[in-house]
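Model: You mentioned two targets. I'll fold them one after the other.
Researcher: Yes, keep them separate.
Model: Target one:
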Amino acid sequence: MSILNRRHLYLCVGHRDDLTTFLPAILRGGVDIVQLREKDLDAESQMADAKVMVPICRDFGVPFIMNDSPELAIAVGADGVHVGQEDVSVAHCRALLGHDAIVGLSTHSTTEFDDALNQSATYFSAGPISPTPTKPGRAGTGVNYAVACQARSDRPVFVTGGVTAENVADLVVAGLRYFVVVRALTEASSPESAARRIRVELDQALSAMPVEPT
């Protein structure tokens, strides 16, 4: 069983000046895995943000993931790294981080997912199911793609793209179980309340589903 099987609400967040208050708020609200995803800052700036975030995540018992760079993940004491199709390989991440580290891999098509299943990633992401500003220029894959990926996978498949409190229950009913949230939390006027609302909707929907083997 994956160490992430019981973690269902994943935040991707970039640099913010209020990380010391924002991050505890969304963790109190129910986020249970966090990634620093910052495409525009240099390594030194990313490390500075990560060094704020890591101890907060530790206090809450929540895994902290760096985006793209296993070297930065090591430098900041992250629990793992998430890489995309054009980044370093999962094998390279494993070689640097070891067997127990969390390694995530993005997929955007059936061909990519077929290949991903043969790699030693801890989890996959699928999507975005609808176009999103966080992945400019990438078309939406649709929900059916993500559902098919999860049905075939022995590891968690986190769906990306437009997940909100309003649609998360319907996505659970469709067959999805793991969700990446960005704008619904990062743009919320009350991040803790926004996270809690998504968490409540998600947990209620999951509890109504048939119990799955673990």
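Model: Target two:
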Amino acid sequence: MSSPTTATDAQLARWERFRAGRNAALATEHGWLTLTSFQWLESQPSGVELVPGLWSTDGTTAFLTASAEDGLTVVETGQAVEGTITATLQDEESLMWVQFGGDDGKQVVVELAMRADKYAVRTRDNSSTVLTRFKGVPTYEYNPDWVVQGRFEAYAEPVDVPIGTANPLVDGVHRSVGEVAFRVPGVPHEIRLHAEEEKLGALNVTFHDESNGETTDEWRKVFIPRPRPDGTVVIDFNRAINYPSAFTPYGTCPMPVRGNSLDVRVEAGEKLPQE
């Protein structure tokens, strides 16, 4: 990048509020920093690591069999699990299903998930050291040069693009609604990235850049406010954030679409998390 532009007090204040909200959202109970396992369910009832009871699936429904001594209760109702309970999900759905442990019986929540049309369970333990030692995500200093103007070119219809995820056994799909085109200092050509749609017309762009694996995680994402009527957008790479898979090996986070890369170091936004 060229010599940096000086940020205004208002820009810094907005960014600091964003960072405070981001760190608070990460540090919630049973949030992404509390994941301690990811395990596929088998067809025969069997135990899984870190969780009481016997777990299984017939491919359509998940089954849990437990006794009162196991100390499991249903998250939604607080009812003790005695005997067999069932749940059914669609692909990519998750359910905070049962809980146990700790003084209140709620230290660990077991999340039932359907990924790649298979059932899995993830444990979310509030005593995880990733959470208890968390002091915020390291970031680059705010740099207004990484707030760039661009334009959004919508497709006539969304296009589903196959992608990989943080779990090599789980494939994903990126629903591209169009492309964001922009330029950054130091790169002679226009950069074009696939975008997904978020709530209220905002966009989400998942991308690689030349800093990945050194100062930043293998990929990051940035949310873009809803395009203006003429298609123009503002992309603030200071707000580039990590996916949960940067903090835990138990995520199934989507990778960027092939080619969604900036051939420059994006030295803005979140860095690699501290150990």
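Researcher: Noted. Anything on target two?
Model: The chain has two domains: 9-27+136-262, 32-132.
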